[in-house]
Design brief:
Layout: H1 5-22, H2 28-43, H3 46-83, H4 86-95, H5 101-119, H6 121-138, H7 143-161, H8 167-176, H9 180-186, H10 188-212, H11 232-254, H12 259-281, H13 286-305, H14 308-316, H15 321-326, H16 336-348, H17 353-367, H18 373-391, H19 395-410, H20 420-426, H21 430-455
Helix pairs in contact: 1-2, 1-16, 2-3, 2-14, 3-8, 3-12, 3-13, 3-14, 4-6, 4-11, 5-6, 5-7, 6-7, 6-20, 7-10, 7-19, 7-20, 7-21, 8-9, 8-18, 8-19, 9-19, 10-19, 10-21, 11-12, 12-13, 14-18, 16-18, 17-18, 17-19, 17-21, 18-19, 19-21
Length: 456
Amino acid sequence: MVLTGAHYIYILFMVVVLITMIMKKESVIPCILGIFALGLYYNKSLTGALGAIFSALNVALNELGPVIIIIGIMVALSKALEENKAIDFMVGPISKVVKNPTSAFFISGIFMLLMSWFFWPSPATALVGAIFLPIAIKAGLPAIGLAMAINLFGHGIALSTDFIIQGAPSITSGAAGIGVNEVMSEGIILYIVMTVVTIGTAFYMLRRDLKNGTLKHELSQTKEIEKKEVSLTAKISIWLVIIAFILDIIAMYKFDLKGGDATGLLGATALMLLIIINLMNNPKTTLDKSTQQLVEGFVFGIKIFAVIIPIAAFFYMGDMSLVTVFGDVLAEGSQGLLGDIGLALSNAVPFNKVAAASIETVVGGITGLDGSSFSGMSLAGSTAAVFGTAIDANVGALAALGQIAATWIGGGCIVPWALAPAAAICGVKPVELAKRNFIPVMVGLVVTTIVAMFII
């Protein structure tokens, strides 16, 4: 396959985007300019190039729209549950079994994981942090330990896997040109390895420092846990949510619902739950409350994806989405810009699975340095497609590896400005939390990358 000017334009702007991210700058403008340059190449006119930018953004919005909608609905539902204190009912029984630092770390972490899978880590952070902080401290777990659990289980495990909402794998798979299910299924071993190694290392270091006195329990912060009266409405609300989502999961397996179908079922269920819960909270304010919560949810979703859409628009041009924008402009036998680049790379330089896995992790990690793991997933997916084509490797596993690296570093575990919410809610310094997370996450990434070398 002979590379054309479009291929070299694409390579140039991929490098520019990567350099921009390394410099901790936003990469939206380089991505827009990259689309513009491709528009000039294919359309040979200024108006055609400008029109290509809008068309590319429209393609990206069509791809990411369902993800934005499901996140908005889930955040809205969490607001309704906050309204009637239903979350307090969930935590009540759990607080009775939190007796020591170990149980406090893992129970708060698992609760954060479940909340993040269904309601997204950002809104879950405030809920879990506020509820578990007095419980954890009373059980002997320092505030920094709780902050670690929130980060590692929520912004680490939940965001890197994202099995329920499927926002992360949707972006990665879209850029890699494969199905969402392929990223999740082919990467399952890597998700498990990263989880076990990182959480195991983090807990070992936490326990070690508690025992040797390096890390002390903040007795001064200990306070009595406020006992709140939980209404019958709150109890019914939480059981409705639990039962409804369990039935959704059963339906997904029974009817083999995947990708958009699974997301649609989950989103529609959450929307109906939002209405029902607001009706139970106060029938008179249902119309206004439901609307207000939906607005807050969609504002949250748009705020996250406003930066991601133009970035994804550029990287989608590397796949057959290019044809959607520019028409049938690819040469016969072309596999898209990224596929062609991968084939050319395999013929030009010696490349193997060790190099592919290592570079994929580095690229994913670098893209996470901007503090938004999602903005780098398109590049991680595109890189996986290139490497997979070049050495005939498992693109799904490679994409999952890049997704893991981008998320664990940029999603809120390493970059100080990304983990500020968890640090703030627990009353610790963001930089201190980043330092505590650094070694566990790095060890996890190294081990996961080594495992990836054998399975791709």
